[in-house]
Automatic annotation (TrEMBL):
Name of this chain's protein: Pimeloyl-ACP methyl ester carboxylesterase
UniProt GO MF annotations: monoacylglycerol lipase activity
Domain AB hydrolase-1 residue range list: 38-264
PANTHER family: HYDROLASE, PUTATIVE (AFU_ORTHOLOGUE AFUA_2G14860)-RELATED, MONOACYLGLYCEROL LIPASE
Cellular-component GO terms for this entry: membrane
Length: 273
């Protein structure tokens, strides 16, 4: 029986480390310190908390590490830079300084883009890769997300219509968790919302997908309107041997909506010889 972690207790687990590039990253560690590592990379404007509902299921027999990415949560928020390669380089330093080599890498949304970049650039650091609700497509300068991010100004209201929609699920999600998630997303300065989104308007990761040699699982909720079915097909076709699982009735935040099921799918994949 896996015991859930309260959001308050999860907050108290936060540690910090200074990377080789001088950046201070906060992170949370769970599970067996001597177990095979699983690195969990959260999505855009989330934090390590994004994994609080799922991580307890993954921590049985594994060493689970979930950082706050650059600009997020309790990590440093420099003026720049917020490109995918630079943020992936932070994660490379973290893998090395915490002695996680080689590690499984699980990334959600933005974290999935970083997982792709790590597997492409530093394959010796990676065991297997799980790409959740993510894509290798160029971002667009139009649509609901662009329009709302473009208008953001500080301070951001955690109870605004946009943040409530941004931090939600296609099915009901624990409200205490969502309240914490909304506050943390709203605490990300608007300059970082803008910078990360703008950088992805100019970054096309698709040509590098063929360089991923690690065994890869792609997970998506069928109701996900951000990482579309077309995006998933592109990744599956480009990554040699990639597996794809679609979850009916689930949206973009599948690890919030169905944490136990998602953890089971991830563990089944990671434990397979």
């Amino acid at each position: 029986m896996v015991e859930p972690i309260s959001q308050e207790h999860f907050s108290g687990l936060k540690r910090a480390v200074v990377l080789g590039n001088g950046l201070r990253l906060a992170y949370i560690e769970l599970g067996d310190p001597s177990g095979v590592p699983i690195l969990l990379l959260h999505g855009f404007t989330d934090s390590a908390r994004s994994w609080s509902l799922t991580a307890p299921y993954l921590a049985t027999g594994f060493r689970v590490v979930a950082p706050d990415l650059r600009g997020h949560g309790n990590s440093d928020k420099p003026e720049g830079c917020y490109t995918i390669p630079e943020m992936a380089n932070d994660v490379r330093f973290l893998i090395e300084v915490l002695d996680l080599v080689p590690t499984h890498v699980v990334g959600h949304s933005l974290g999935g883009r970083l997982a792709q970049a790590i597997a492409e650039r530093w394959p010796h650091l990676v065991r297997k890769v799980v790409l959740m609700s993510t894509s290798a497509a160029l971002r667009e300068r139009r649509g609901w997300l662009w329009e709302n991010i473009h208008m953001l100004r500080d301070p951001i209201d955690p109870e605004s219509a946009f943040i409530r929609e941004w931090c939600s699920g296609a099915v009901p999600v624990d409200e205490n968790f969502l309240a914490h998630a909304r506050r943390e997303s709203a605490a990300v300065p608007s300059r970082i919302w803008h910078s990360i989104y703008y950088e992805q308007l100019a970054y096309d990761p698709s040509p590098l997908l063929q360089d991923i040699s690690a065994l890869t699982l792609i997970l998506r909720g069928e109701e996900d309107m951000i990482a579309t079915e077309e995006h998933q097909a592109q990744m599956k076709d480009a990554i040699v041997g990639a597996e794809f699982i679609s979850l009916p009735g689930q949206g973009h935040n599948i690890h919030w909506e169905a944490p136990e099921k998602v953890a089971h799918l991830i563990l089944t994949f990671l434990k397979r010889p």
